[in-house]
Design a protein that fits this description.
Layout lengths: L10 H14 L8 E3 L6 H4 L9 H5 L10 E7 L3 H12 L7 E4 L8 H4 L11 H4 L3 H4 L10 H14 L6 E2 L2 E9 L4 E10 L5 E14 L8 E3 L10 E4 L5 H4 L17 E5 L3 H11 L4 E6 L5 E2 L8 H8 L5 H13 L38 H26 L3 H6 L12 E2 L3 H4 L5 E5 L7 E3 L2 E4 L2 E4 L2 E4 L13 H5 L2 E3 L6 H8 L15 E3 L11 H19 L10 E5 L1 H12 L28 H9 L7 H13 L5 E5 L1
Length: 646
């Protein structure tokens, strides 16, 4: 991304934004965190154990493939992206027996399998978030669906399409290597069995076509703070909420957390997870200490049950209704529609005028470098009213003036994912809830039964780490690095070497030259959306369309077609993405966070490094124009794809 200009703002507000951003700046950037999977501490590593799996039941399930076996399609991940790819393959006419999904968890759902903290709902309207509602006829119970409902819906989706016995659970892909003689991918995996899935064995199979669908946030992390592993009380990360400690159940969104009664609870982090979990913890903990570096922007939620009449008359109105509603939300967020165009979703998301800063907009196509100050000024003007109202809302809800001031965010709306709640701010009016604001510095350390912040000890019995995940931009968007897989393509070329030497190099963000019959999800060189399911819908549709065009279901099983983009096509695409990189200069004014890789993305770079980073810029006009472009490309004959019969 290009990040060179300062935002023209009112001096007082600009100064405040800069001061708040400076508090979070750390020279170590992303290295201030450690990923739990790779921690030196066994106790911290165990915080990401699969505590939800029924291992004895999983041990009895027949494997869909064994060592030495072969499959036409190997999909890595059984979250929403993996499920969409598999179901769209079935809809395209491919056989379920030709598909194997590999999933490291003990069940399907991806982020909705792992994340089960109390109060959890999707933050985007469920009518556009849940996939394939039109095909299934399913009616979500609420405008914003609970995690349990989403997880159960995805299980039913897998069953509906006959894929329940095609999943290899508790299995992690370690490497993919292209076999030029057999024209297949050799896939090396580690599979867990037995108690806790700790009995490891290796599995080696061959796949004609491989699809990486590992999700955006597979790696929970915690800050590198002295004494964390030595904390002797109960401790867990919100990515693995431990109901054995808190009481309650992951199947009940508003569980009775009676295990926290009489306990002093330390809750570290005030991001999107905290906004939903904190109000539930506050109902039961004797004392709740919430440790904050940077406050979230908290907007009204407006949750409500689905009204059957509204559903039939105004939502599910006929063929194509979900796609139309999904695109309507995206176009409002990208400012690609006039203000008087009907707003189908009409929630707080859809009224964020400046959030296009990280999504793209047709209003700024071909943005020249000398126009960046003017562009940033326009974003600020769009954001000013909303941002001021969001700050003002805090003072009208939180009764303690000092607490309200500490909960007030000072950064542009687009710099962090905005949050929505009608209960979070209200929780700070409870006498047992205490905000410990660290003024951007974070916690000093941990004792055996206490948290230390700003030189003061806070005794706690239970420690809840709500400290997020590794950035999706890790490794410059390299699919191998993001998925933690060693990928070796034609002529021994490593994908990570290709990315590190040239920057992002794909066609449309979904496949890359010298890595035939390999497809993946990406934000780099593709297009993001506030609604992640919209991104997945666009990319899975594109991937399955490419596969089906060159390798149709009618092709005899003894024939193989090798598909990859030409080097020229992907270089042309990289230059096209680079030409829109100036649009994303909007992040230059942001407080360090996952969008900027904790500030690493904003550090001074050489011209060569800047160009490499710019190549990975998303499509700069928004996801709907991106989708229309892809549709036109497919209609024109898939230009730039090299296909050959093995």
């Amino acid at each position: 991304m290009v990040a060179t200009a300062a935002m023209p703002q009112l001096p007082s507000e600009q100064l405040k934004f800069m001061q708040e951003a400076a508090k979070r700046q750390r020279p170590e950037g992303t290295k201030q965190f450690q990923e739990l999977y790779f921690s030196d501490s066994s106790r911290l590593r165990h915080l990401v154990d699969d505590i939800f799996a029924d291992h004895s039941a999983l041990d009895k399930i027949p494997l869909p493939i064994k060592t030495g076996g072969h499959t036409k399609f190997l999909i890595m991940g059984a979250g929403m992206g993996g499920i969409l790819n598999a179901t769209k393959l079935v809809k395209a006419g491919f056989r379920q027996d030709d598909i194997v999904l590999v999933e490291m968890a003990g069940g399907v759902g991806g982020t909705w399998y792992w994340n089960r903290y109390p109060g959890l709902h999707c933050d985007v309207e469920s009518y556009v978030y849940l996939p394939m509602l039109e095909e299934t006829g399913y009616v979500p119970s609420h405008k914003y669906t609970s995690a349990a409902e989403i997880r159960n819906y995805l299980v039913k989706l897998v069953e509906r399409f006959g894929l329940a016995d095609r999943i290899l659970y508790r299995t992690e892909v370690n490497s993919l290597q292209w076999d030029g003689d057999k024209k297949t991918w050799k896939v090396e995996m580690a599979m867990g069995r037995g108690e806790g899935g700790r009995e490891k064995s290796t599995l080696s199979v061959n796949a004609d076509i491989s699809i990486l669908a590992g999700g955006l946030f597979p790696h929970p992390h915690v800050p590198r703070i002295p004494g964390l592993a030595g904390f002797e009380g109960d401790m867990f990360h919100t990515a693995r909420w431990d109901y054995a400690v808190s009481g309650g159940s992951s199947e009940d969104t508003f569980s009775e957390l009676k295990g926290l009664e009489g306990k002093r609870v330390g809750y570290v982090g005030t991001g999107a997870t905290a906004i939903q979990a904190v109000p539930e913890v506050a109902k039961y903990a004797k004392e709740l200490f919430i440790f904050q570096r940077t406050p979230s922007q908290v907007n009204p939620r407006g949750q409500k049950p689905t009204d059957p009449k509204e559903w039939s008359e105004h939502i599910a109105t006929g063929p194509g209704w979900q796609k139309g509603r999904m695109e309507n939300l995206a176009q409002h967020l990208s400012r690609n529609l006039s203000d008087d165009t009907i707003n189908m979703v009409d929630d707080e998301w859809s009224h964020l005028k400046a959030y296009c800063a990280v999504l793209g907009s047709e209003r700024f196509t071909g943005l020249a470098l000398d126009k960046i100050p003017e562009y940033l000024g326009q974003l600020q003007a769009w954001d000013a009213d909303h941002n001021a109202k969001a700050r003002e809302r805090i003072s009208t809800i939180v009764t303690d003036k000092l607490t309200a001031e500490k909960l007030t965010p000072w950064y542009p709306t687009w710099c962090k994912r905005p949050t929505f709640s009608d209960t979070y701010l209200q929780a700070f009016n409870k006498p047992n809830v205490h905000l410990v604001d660290t003024d951007g510095k974070g916690i000093d350390g941990f004792r055996s039964h206490a948290i230390v912040a700003d030189g003061q000890e806070y005794p706690v019995d239970v420690l809840i780490l709500s400290t997020g995940y590794r950035s999706p931009a890790y490794g410059g968007g390299d699919p191998a690095a993001r998925n933690g897989i060693d990928i070796v393509g034609k002529n021994g070329l490593k994908m990570s070497d290709k990315w590190s030497s040239r920057g992002a190099t794909t066609l449309h963000g979904v496949f890359s030259h010298d890595f035939p019959n390999l497809f993946f999800f990406a934000i780099a060189q593709a297009s993001p959306a506030a609604n992640v399911n919209h991104t997945l819908e666009v990319q899975t549709t594109h991937i399955i369309s490419i596969i089906s065009h060159f390798n149709p279901p009618s092709l005899p099983h003894d024939k193989k077609v090798i598909i990859e983009p030409s080097a020229e096509a992907e270089e042309t695409w990289a230059m096209r993405c680079l030409s829109g990189a100036a649009f994303f200069s909007s992040v230059a004014v942001c407080t360090p966070g996952y969008i900027t890789q904790e500030g690493d993305a904003l550090k001074q770079k050489s011209q060569e490094e800047t160009i490499k980073a710019g190549r990975g810029s998303p499509w700069s006009s928004g996801i709907v124009p991106f989708e229309r472009m892809l549709e036109g490309w497919r209609a024109d004959g898939f230009d730039g794809v090299v296909a050959s019969e093995a």
